[in-house]
Specification:
This protein has about 200 residues and is an all-alpha fold. It contains nine helices and no strands. Helix 8 packs across helix 9. The relative contact order is 0.11.
Length: about 200
Amino acid sequence: MAKQQKPRAMRQVQGGGLAAMERLEQRSDEELEAETKFKSAAYAILGARAAERYDGRATRAYYQRALAAARPQERMQLRRMADASIALAERRAGDLKDAVTRLGQAPPTDRQLLMLRLMGLVAPPPGSSVLLRLRGYALILGLVIALLAIGLGLAELVSLPFGGVGIGGGIFLGIVIVAAVLGVMAFLGRRKQARARAAAAAGRR
């Protein structure tokens, strides 16, 4: 399955320490943790990165530190950034769309929001109820079975001119076919993301 581009919270604000975010974004997590001059910007970037890993607890913690280090005039925008990042980390597609819109940024696409909703079903946020986690496991199992069934069907179809194939061989060929298709989709998805990042970088120049 192609890796989908994740919706991201807006990280750029005007004025003050947070205006340094674009320069700081190229730094490693360790360098950002050690930042002393622009602490609020560094913690906000770390919070956004945690959100992209869907780590809600770390996202909240980093933004709390960012707010504590921010100047009063920066805090409203920083809270909006926190709302967007936390909604992303907790897979709350509707809240993410609203929060990103309040930031003044174009909201995530319908496709990105759909993928986020699906991820929320398959991998609910930490602290979710047992029923929600069991539902996620059941969906993953159903997806694996569906992919294997599709792969088996394709293997049977391909092998028909050669006299067909047994169940064992069909399952093996099906796994190979599905793995190859997912690999190609992931490769194409990464290339698309690389082009999007290059275009965004060119637009900032």
